Amino acid sequence: MRVADLSTPALVADGGALARNLDTMAAALPGARLRPHVKAHKCTALAREQAARGHVTFTGATPRELVGLAHAGLGTDLLLANQCVDLQRLAALVATGARVTVAVDSPATIDAAARAGVGEVLVDVNVGMPRCGCAVEDAGTIADTARARGLAVRGVMGYEGHVVGLEGRDERVEKTATAMDRLAAAHALVGGDVVSAGGTGTYDINTLATEIQAGSYALMDTAYAKLDVPFDLTFGVVATVIHVAPKYAVADCGLKALAMDHGQPDMDDGDVWFCSDEHITFAPRAAVNVGDRVIVRPAHVDPTMAKHEALHIAAGPGLDAEIIDTWAIDLRGWDA
Amino acid sequence: MRVADLSTPALVADGGALARNLDTMAAALPGARLRPHVKAHKCTALAREQAARGHVTFTGATPRELVGLAHAGLGTDLLLANQCVDLQRLAALVATGARVTVAVDSPATIDAAARAGVGEVLVDVNVGMPRCGCAVEDAGTIADTARARGLAVRGVMGYEGHVVGLEGRDERVEKTATAMDRLAAAHALVGGDVVSAGGTGTYDINTLATEIQAGSYALMDTAYAKLDVPFDLTFGVVATVIHVAPKYAVADCGLKALAMDHGQPDMDDGDVWFCSDEHITFAPRAAVNVGDRVIVRPAHVDPTMAKHEALHIAAGPGLDAEIIDTWAIDLRGWDA
């Protein structure tokens, strides 16, 4: 079966480009220097490819993602890089038997981790983005509180999420330095040997971190493709043209199949006008007919993956490539 | 179990408000005057509530939605209000034994319907939104082509999607009239006794249509709630506060749980700053603590439903209401 033979809409990645992205990152950040973030792909088959290249420590944003990795035999060292006070879900994660480390940033999150039987934590520090993470000056107290509850404190985490997507490299370098000055100050108060941070946009800029939490580098998206990173856009949503008008055409891939939070998708052979639930209206650059296939490139990979049940792996780019594998996107949802 | 006891993020609707919305619409457009659009909720349990109020004809945007309705015993009269050239999916829909009508707007879509064994069609007409639908002047030819292929032409369809969401009623009235002038002209060329059109924003304005395809009216969303329609916002995503900072707080409900295409969600007790994959950062209007629950109101109901596996029905509004039922969102995805 070729890409053009798939029922649509369907997610497809060029397996060769994906392998090159994985190899490039494994060469730059070998082994545990990379802790791949599975929130970007939610796919144990892709995590296995990362593990095969030497990365056996993983990052997740939900207990469900990490429970799925543990059940797939990928539970060597799992980090929940997020705050969680759901005792049932934390306990279910612990019950997998995997090595589990959880981010904490408050007495309440420490209490939840301790009560759920979690053994190890990282102190999550706010390095400049208004989201989770304690203030730098509170990091030592948080670590002391965790240790008093019997938790081993492995170190600190601080995600420069306000920096990773900036297009200018100089700006990323400067703002990463500022963010990591904060994380270093917190680390001095907390101790431990782990400094976990970073993403695809700062994987080679963030030199403080002992481990980088990149995820998007594997499949990429049009937002990250604007940066000067050595990873190629590998994936898109294949759609079928269902209507052709004089100035535009319509394909059967809409905002239920595409993440819209980073803006409109792009198309290889057309200019996108707008997306509806199940449609994309676009101006084709060459004549198209009803029944033709087109490839739509989402702006944000993570939430696009979460909308689909499967990722098809093709032998190459384009519509004529053979489908060589189909991977379940099995870490979706929130219930384990 | 109360709303506040759910694991989060979780979709919840106030069952009383939902019943009132369903009753209000059934009184305004009884029986087949409404052909409920299931793309808005993707939930056979909710479709059963609509059928219990007398609406036994349904609209869908995908074959998968309609196959699911047919398997649930709701296949009295199903309209695929979308173009489809996937023979396998069309044939699977026909194979359910349900009465199936399909929208066509070109020789290619007519050919697909005929080859898949579809018996009845509506001619889809462009009434002003650049999406599917033939030009008014081509509608008669399309109907003739369909009849020549042995298809029964039941009438016309023309969705004024560029009008239904406009906030000013006068503007909706004026633009619906313009759109329906086009549909009436096409109807004169096509014949048949069905004129299918409309949505929640024009359900009482569009008087040309013999049947209205509204769907959002049942659950509603913050975009439709700005209009002067007699339907209340019933649903939201319950989330848990996981971090509290001096000027903001963070809850565990992000853009993987919320449709973002109509813009930011609202919150009952906070001002939303931004959403990340699994987080919402907001300024609470009263003090909150880690572990507290909050309710987030998505701007667009249809794609929000498509992100969740279940809709919990509560006995009333708010966090203390008892959960009285849980409905599977079972019409998601594209594979039947």
Helix content of chain A: 25-40%
Oligomer: homodimer
- Please, what is the average pLDDT of chain A? 97
Q: Runs of chain A with pLDDT <50, length 5+?
A: none
- Report the CATH topology name of the largest domain in chain A: TIM Barrel
Q: Return the string of H and E elements of chain A.
A: EHHEHEHEHEHEHEEEEEEEEHEE
Greatest interface by residues involved = A-B, 55 and 57 residues
The number of E-state strands of chain A comes to 16
What is the alpha-carbon Rg of chain A in Å?
A: 21 Å
Percent range for β-strand residues of chain A: 15-25%
Largest sheet properties of chain A: 9 strands, mixed
Number of domains of chain A: 2
CATH class of the largest domain in chain A: Alpha Beta
Label the CATH architecture of the largest domain in chain A: Alpha-Beta Barrel
Shape field of chain A: elongated
Number of helices of chain A: 8
Termini gap of chain A: 33 Å
SSE layout:
2 copies of one chain form a homodimer.
Chain A: E1 10-14, H1 15-28, H2 44-52, E2 57-60, H3 63-71, E3 77-80, H4 87-94, E4 100-104, H5 107-116, E5 120-124, H6 139-148, E6 152-157, H7 169-190, E7 194-197, E8 211-212, E9 235-244, E10 249-251, E11 266-267, E12 270-275, E13 280-284, E14 293-297, H8 301-305, E15 310-314, E16 323-328
Parallel strand pairs in A: 1-15, 2-3, 3-4, 4-5, 5-6, 6-7, 7-8
Antiparallel strand pairs in A: 1-9, 9-10, 9-14, 10-13, 11-14, 12-13, 15-16
